[in-house]
């Protein structure tokens, strides 16, 4: 992957992370809030309070994705070597 592609995807992922965090915060701050408009920059959808577990799961996945892409961008990673038995 080239650097420009990774930088662009990292920016999109960060925007999505912010949107999902904003939804979680909104539900946390207002216990009467049942619906939240979630604008990820890619789509606009309604998030519901009873979907908080799914929202948190998506947020966790986005953080993992961000970490992986930033690692690739930095040139870090692991190389698996076959042992010479």
Question: What does it look like?
Answer:
- The protein is mainly alpha-helical and 85 residues long.
- It has a two-stranded antiparallel sheet with strand order 1-2.
- The relative contact order is 0.17.
- Helix 1 (3-29) runs antiparallel to helix 2.
- It contains 2 helices and 2 strands; from the N terminus they run αββα.
- The chain starts with a helix and ends in an 11-residue tail after the last helix.
- The chain is elongated.
- The chain is 59% helix and 12% strand.
- The chain has helices at 3-29, 52-74; strands at 35-39, 44-48.
- It has one domain (3-74).
Give the quaternary arrangement of the chains: single chain
Number of helices: 2
Tell me the fraction of residues in β-strands, as a range: 5-15%
Shape: elongated
Separation of termini? Answer: 34 Å
- Listing every helix as H and every strand as E from the N terminus to the C terminus, the arrangement reads HEEH
Report the C-alpha radius of gyration, rounded. 17 Å
Percent range of helical residues: 55-70%
List low-pLDDT spans. none
Structural class assignment = mainly alpha
Largest β sheet strand count, sense and barrel closure: 2 strands, antiparallel
| Quantity of strands, as a count | 2
- How many domains? The number is 1
List keywords for this structure.
85 residues, mainly alpha, two-stranded antiparallel ribbon, 2 helices, 2 strands, 12% strand
């Amino acid at each position: 992957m080239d650097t420009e592609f990774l930088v662009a995807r990292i920016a999109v992922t960060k925007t999505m992370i912010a949107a999902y965090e904003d939804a979680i915060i909104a539900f946390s701050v207002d216990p009467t809030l049942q619906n939240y408009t979630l604008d990820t920059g890619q789509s606009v959808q309604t998030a519901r309070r009873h979907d908080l577990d799914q929202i948190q799961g998506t947020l966790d996945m986005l953080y993992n994705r961000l970490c992986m892409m930033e690692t690739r961008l930095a040139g870090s990673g692991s190389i698996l070597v076959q042992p010479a038995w």
